[in-house]
Design brief:
Radius of gyration: 26 Å
Largest sheet: 8 strands, mixed
Distance between the termini: 44 Å
Strand content: 15-25%
Number of helices: 14
CATH topology of the largest domain: Rossmann fold
Strand order of the largest sheet: 12-11-8-13-16-17-18-19
CATH class of the largest domain: Alpha Beta
Structural class: alpha/beta
CATH superfamily of the largest domain: CoaB-like
Length: 407
Amino acid sequence: MKVALGVCGGIAAYKACEVVRLLQDAGVRVQVVMTAAAQEFVRPLTFAALSGEKVITGLWQSGGEQPNLDSAIEHISVAQSIDALVVAPCTADTAAKFAHGHADDFLSTLYLATPAPVIIAPTMNVQMLNHPATQENLETLRKRGVHIVEPGSGYLACGMVGAGRLAEPEEIVAAVLAGLGVVHDLTGETILITAGPTREPVDPVRFLGNRSSGKMGYALAEAALRRGAKVLLISGPVALEAPAGADVVQVETAEEMHNAVLSRASQASVVIAAAAVADFRLQKASTQKIKRNGPMSLDLEPTPDILADVAARRRSDQLLIGFAAETQNAIENARAKLRKKGIDAIVVNDVSNPEIGFDSERNEVTILTASEEIPIARAEKSKIAHRILDAVLKLKTRTSKAVPAHK
């Protein structure tokens, strides 16, 4: 999850450093956009060091370089890549630009191009805040759906006392997380997630594998962590950075993943099997590289059915969620798998579509339970992950109601 943090010129600009830190603590990537006036109070290097991201300081290249296509349309690419635009501190001038659609710098242009939620935290002199023009601008923004984190009251930098102080960074970040839909509704849950492919050796050089990138499983792990869960991530070989805070076990073969899952499944209240585990392996892999000497055949045998084995050992309070990658009759095949394995839900997608599924940033799935069929429209895998976790919470609520309390 990523936000753009707009920083405007004012003495409160230094507090934006704390906003960056708190957002990062919540697992949110932050790209800072600074107005020219903001750079008079805090240097861009400070935000670059804190965020680990490029700081945008204007519409055009700096240092006398010639503008290029990338710099000319960067406000569009940033607008499409963020989950929210946050402006803290937001000056009266920037609020006026937003309200009237003026776009004469990167931040105001970004605002017009952003389809994501917008949160602003105004700060200014009390007289400026109370001026009818400012109040009218803020009201216009409210009516357009902009969330305003109201300024506090107290001593102001100008020496006056009254409203206009920037809201506390914790309050701003809480508003941002609420706007992003980040809530700790999985606190107390331990979720075991499998992700990525497995590799079944043919010889010391070759293996049988599949096209899974692990992105869906890793998105689930990250989403679960943000919602307060403890996450056990059993991962096949992928080129992804593990989510901070997850307990990660790296495996390679289906047998290794089977053993890792079964040894840890008892710790989990929810098991989500998102890995694309190989269905077959060689009966006996060659200890030497196989030479190319004409036609050859491989003797294959089934790999262990991890989810079925977990289901056979499940506790009554455990939820088991499977995945099904299909190329035809997706719903029918997935529903048969749901019944056969005796699990609570299955997430199915049609991997014959090259625009979604394997190695894509987006997906389009249907969640099947015994009584429901929940289609989820095409979206980024991070958003799909939260929809799947919403379904997990719904299933847990039903399960807890169905189990009578012991007297």
